[in-house]
Amino acid sequence: MLTTTTKGVIAAIASAVCYGMNPLGALYLYKNGINTDSALFYRFSLASLLLGITLLIQRETFKIGKRELAFSILLGLMFAVSSLTYYDSFHYMDAGISSTILFIYPIMVAIIMAAVFHEKLTYPMMAAIFLSMVGVAILYNGEGVKLSITGVILVLISALAYAIYIVIVNRARLQVSASKLTFFATLFCACFIFIHSLTTTDNHIIVPYSANIWFYAMILALFPGLLSLLLLAVAVRNIGSTQTAIFGALEPVSALCVGVFVFGEKVTFKMGIGILLVLLSVTLIILARRKKNQSAKVAESPNFK
């Protein structure tokens, strides 16, 4: 019989690995002529369908308040911006490197909280920011790395949009379950991506023309979408958000492995140092926030002396 902690750890690792499979579906679809908007539209529309079926199985109502609906639309927009820029970056750099740079979003969360909500920017947080900048700089100047300033900017925009998404979820105090909120967010995300596809001639929605394309579209919806989100909820419930976030470091590692072993992307020693610095910086800031949260709980305790 597995303990609660063991269940949480397994779920956290599985969630990170599932999310790291984004490049597996996306790069295959790109190679077969499916553009960014199409890949993402099918990912989120199918994911929202699967989440809707999950809600029906759980016998949860789809009713939602006006405030929660408004925030769901905003979250869907942030999700769309983050996903479009992230997937577009695959055209400019290796997917594993893109996924590593994307993982600096916890640092952006800390910066937003300091700038907007006046949270103190501690020395560990500043050290983490410095390490992440050095890591990205090493990746950009790495030998044999397919990297461009356009790709880096796209990933940074993606990380910022996702950081805003997380801040909204944490600060809005929405009276809705995580499953329902995710369902509406992915549904509106699919709608925004469809609208975006109408604004350009190169990114119109392409109907999948083979069983293989439907298969990889379903991989995007099932693994980085539904399974990653459901396993994430299990992990947070059993081991907490901080430890779950630390295991999230496996997301770029998983994506990097997909890029190397499936698509033949190269990894040099210099790249390894850059990736290590980025992962170290994020782990540092997560641990710093954990210590801060623990101190706050002690200070709020009625037995505090």
Describe the structure.
This protein has helices spanning 4-19, 22-31, 36-57, 66-89, 95-102, 105-116, 123-140, 149-171, 178-197, 211-247, 250-261, 269-300. The protein has 305 residues and is mainly alpha-helical. It has one domain (7-299). Helix 3 crosses helix 10 and helix 5 (95-102) runs parallel beside helix 8 (149-171). The protein is globular.
Give a short summary of the structure:
This protein is an all-alpha fold and 305 residues long. Helix content is 77%, strand content 0%.
Please supply descriptive tags for the structure shown above.
305 residues, mainly alpha, 12 helices, globular
The total number of structural domains is 1
Uncertain residue segments: 297-305
Query: Which structural class best describes the helix and strand composition?
Result: mainly alpha
Spell the H/E element sequence: HHHHHHHHHHHH
- Please work out how many helical segments DSSP would assign: 12
Question: What is the terminal separation in angstroms?
Answer: 40 Å
Question: How does the major sheet shape up?
Answer: none
Q: Which percent band covers the strand fraction?
A: under 5%
Percent range for helical residues?
A: over 70%
